[in-house]
Design a protein that fits this description.
The chain is an alpha+beta fold and about 170 residues long. It has 5 helices and 7 strands.
């Protein structure tokens, strides 16, 4: 909630710095390794850009956004499923960060609303997962504060893919 208040304040100013894609990706899975192992969920990552590529962003906030997306992917993926992170080239000098899962998917009726504060899909398939309905709202706010846009592609029963692009810092 503190992070939420910080993000929504008029004085929100990112602690922007330059760091590498390698630094962004390092340890990203750490909070999810044990829960994934317990549920036999495969966590994988591919990086299709030079890991020394620099981004100019708020490191802590960007990590928070990535981990909010990963948390949902792990939460909504059934036992034995998979969560895959891919970092690759985007359009117009950006890198694209995406998280794809083999989870339950998101009903098209709710795909626009999942980024709203406190919104949770009211469905028997999702009701038992819990949560406050803030993770994707915060992730969206952070991505937008960096000049990006978060997208979701999903079908019920066929998983989901969340992605966003970040500008690459000129060498």
């Amino acid at each position: 909630l503190i992070n939420l208040g910080h993000l929504e304040s008029d004085e929100y100013g990112q602690d922007v710095e330059s760091f590498t894609v390698e630094e962004l990706c390092a340890g990203l899975f750490t909070p999810f390794e044990q829960p994934a192992r317990d549920r036999r969920i495969a966590l994988t990552m591919n990086c299709f850009v030079d890991r020394a590529t620099m981004v100019h962003a708020d490191r802590a906030d960007l990590r928070r956004a990535c981990q909010a997306i990963l948390e949902n992917a792990v939460k909504f993926t059934p036992d034995g499923g998979a969560v895959h992170v891919e970092v690759g080239p985007g359009r117009d000098g950006t890198i694209r960060f995406s998280v794809r899962d083999t989870g339950i998917g998101i009903d098209p009726r709710y795909q626009r609303r999942i980024f709203e504060k406190f919104f949770q899909v009211e469905d028997p398939l999702t009701r038992h997962y819990g949560g406050a309905g803030l993770g994707l709202f915060v992730a969206k706010g952070i991505v937008e504060a960096h000049g990006g846009r978060i997208d979701v592609v999903s079908k019920l029963g066929a998983g989901a893919e969340f992605s966003f692009a970040l500008p690459v810092e000129a060498p």
